[in-house]
């Protein structure tokens, strides 16, 4: 059986420097948007430069790759704190489908909120070349 570790390297956003307490929520959903795994949050990202927020954090997907059903996807929701409204808001999201699971770097597109776990009405966040940068590692579970 194979386990997947995803390193969340960085996210590109035009207003990256203005995001307060940014973090990611990672979830694995089936085609109907139902959770297949416990939802995980990253620590708050501390490094920002230009149009990037750097996470450099590893997330272990808590299920063997072989046991993920056809049509499942791994979602990455980018969240940040809005002091005026006093709550944490989802700014955008990205996802990776099963055929995208392979070792090495991957760059995925960002979509406008609200997060569409069923992947029916997707709208790109921007026309600018800003993405979520990830690196995948597959391990054989002994």
UniProtKB/TrEMBL annotation:
GO cellular component terms attached to this protein's record: membrane
Family matches, as Pfam families: Aida_C2
PROSITE patterns assigned: C2_AIDA (PS51911)
GO molecular function: phosphatidylinositol binding
GO biological process entries: determination of ventral identity
Keywords from the UniProt entry: Developmental protein
Residues covered by the C2 Aida-type domain: 1-139
Sequence similarity: Belongs to the AIDA family.
PANTHER family, A to Z: AXIN INTERACTOR, DORSALIZATION-ASSOCIATED PROTEIN
Biological role: Acts as a ventralizing factor during embryogenesis. Inhibits axin-mediated JNK activation by binding axin and disrupting axin homodimerization. This in turn antagonizes a Wnt/beta-catenin-independent dorsalization pathway activated by AXIN/JNK-signaling.
Protein name: Axin interactor, dorsalization-associated protein
